[in-house]
Write a structure and sequence with these properties.
Layout (H helix, E strand, L loop, with lengths): L7 E4 L3 H12 L4 E4 L3 H8 L10 H7 L4 E4 L2 H7 L2 E4 L14 H12 L4 E5 L7 H11 L5 E5 L9 H6 L4 E5 L2 H10 L7 E4 L1 H32 L3 H9 L20 H14 L5 H25 L6 E5 L14 H11 L3 E5 L15 E2 L3 H4 L5 E4 L11 H7 L4 E4 L6 H6 L3 E3 L8 H4 L4
Bound molecules: uridine-5'-diphosphate-glucuronic acid (UGA).
């Protein structure tokens, strides 16, 4: 097989790996995807996508002829020299990134020998590429070349982010290896940042940490807006029109979640700490994010008094809309806190089946929003699924015991809701009562 005909390997078919593999196939490459999870691979062989990502199922279908799936490293390595690594790097109890899965993949590849180009998509601490290469050298493995090619894929918009990215970052130890990876992206129109491996690794962490900082910043501005009677939505608009600031990620709410921001901010703080540097700003970003979701409890108490016996409906449980991902979702903490206060908690999320869910013990999940809000003393918009904007609010009011709406994502129209007879509160939206402003709840 000459190099042009060889398929590209992708190890790990989670959100990042599967999107990467499928999009590479869409660009015209043949791709072999490997995962150790047999059920996932079996599902993919049948054309069933085991995760929810808009457009992904169709893209798998469209490119089926160029895609294959396996659980066998031997099968993968018999065909592929270029291997994208996209396994997860969850946080360890110390806050560092857990590299055990990355290490296992590298070992599997190294011990089978041969010439390989490893392209690291997984988010790994700065210095990982150099460590891996030093370890391989120490073990006498010399056929492996390493390139860092971090991902900037938002769940829910991952395909668009892969095929029309703001930039492609390629960090390599040699120009030749970097050129080879750059060539794989032929057909994608985006600036390419070519750099060293540690710099590429840092670009990934710094980008996520900066976006998380923007969110915690605007959330603190929102909290001050509540104190002084300003409206954070217009503040963000006014700020965002300044090109140096930019309008993105200035949407105040109950904080960031998901599998990336909380983990990566913590890991960068930890990485700095391990090197003897105290990253003060990130410490505050993390703390603000923790406190932000708890403010909802104060707002509920202000309106309902003691929450013991109150019935609270949560609308939206996933960490953001257009995904089925519950990792680090604000809803988990919120539901647990409310239960701890003695409230009865009901919920609806378009991605979750009715009944119960292990992450939400004691919470009743309903198939329809109207069922979830029935007899509720308050509803909280936790995740801004578009369908919540189109709710029949007259019917919602009719169904609820008390018409209190806490809009944790500032997506509803306060005037319309107040006119409809609701007591409405957003995050940093003017008009909050004195008791909440003074923090007496
Ligand atoms: C994030 C980054 O946006 C991607 O570029 C990156 O590749 C990815 O992490 C990763 O490292 O893999 P994602 O976690 O899918 O992507 O979600 P985002 O859309 O960035 O949202 C993260 C959280 O911030 C969500 O909980 C969202 O509700 C919250 N958010 C976002 C706000 O509270 N306000 C905003 O203005 C924006």
């Amino acid at each position: 097989m000459n190099e042009e005909q060889r398929p590209i390997g992708v190890v790990g078919v989670g959100y990042v790996g599967l999107v990467t593999g499928v999009c590479l196939a869409h660009l015209g490459h043949r791709v072999v995807c490997l995962d150790v999870d047999e059920a996932r691979i079996e599902a993919l062989r049948r054309g069933t996508v085991p995760i929810y990502e808009p457009g992904l199922e169709k893209l798998v279908d469209d490119n089926a002829a160029r895609l294959s799936f396996t659980t066998s490293h031997d099968e993968l390595l018999a065909q592929c020299r270029v291997l994208f690594v996209a396994v997860d790097t969850p946080p360890t109890p110390s806050g560092d990134a857990d590299l055990s899965r990355v290490r296992r993949v590298v070992d599997e590849i190294a011990h089978r020998g041969g010439r390989r180009l490893l392209v690291m998509k997984s988010t790994v601490p700065v210095g990982t590429g150099a460590h891996i290469m030093a370890d391989l050298e120490g073990d006498g493995v010399d056929g492996i070349t390493y390139v860092s090619n971090p991902e900037f894929l938002r769940e829910g918009a991952a395909i668009e982010d892969f095929l029309s990215p703001d930039r492609i970052v390629i960090g390599s130890f040699s120009d030749e290896a970097g050129d080879e990876v750059e060539a794989l992206y032929r057909g994608v129109d985006a600036p390419v940042v070519r750099t060293s491996v540690p710099t590429a690794e840092m670009i990934k962490y710094a980008s996520n940490a900066f976006l998380a900082t923007k969110i915690s910043f605007v959330n603190e501005i929102a909290n001050v807006c509540e104190e002084v009677g300003a409206d954070v939505r217009t503040v963000a608009e006014g700020m965002g029109l300044d090109h140096r600031i930019g309008a993105h990620f200035l949407h105040a709410g109950i904080g960031f979640g998901g599998s990336c921001f909380p983990k990566d901010v913590q890991a960068l703080k930890q990485l700095a700490g391990n090197s003897g540097y105290h990253f003060q700003l990130l410490t505050a970003v993390i703390e603000v994010n923790h406190l932000q979701k708890r403010r909802v409890i104060g707002k509920l108490k202000h309106h309902l008094g003691n929450l013991r016996g109150a019935r609270i409906a949560l609308l939206g449980l996933t960490f953001k809309p257009h995904t089925d991902d519950l990792r680090e979702a604000a809803s988990i903490v919120l539901a647990a806190r409310l239960r701890g206060e003695g409230a009865t908690v009901t919920a609806h999320d378009p991605m979750l089946s009715p009944g119960s869910h292990e992450l939400f013990p004691g919470v009743d999940l309903f198939a329809e929003p109207l069922e979830a809000v029935r007899d509720a003393d308050a509803l909280v918009v936790v995740t801004e699924w578009p369908e919540f904007l189109r709710l029949d609010w007259a019917a919602v009011k009719e169904a609820m015991r008390r018409p209190v709406v806490i809009d944790g994502r500032n997506v509803l129209d306060p005037d319309a809701l107040r006119e409809a007879g609701f007591t409405y509160e957003g995050v940093g939206v003017a008009g909050l009562p004195e008791a909440v402003r003074s923090g007496s709840s």
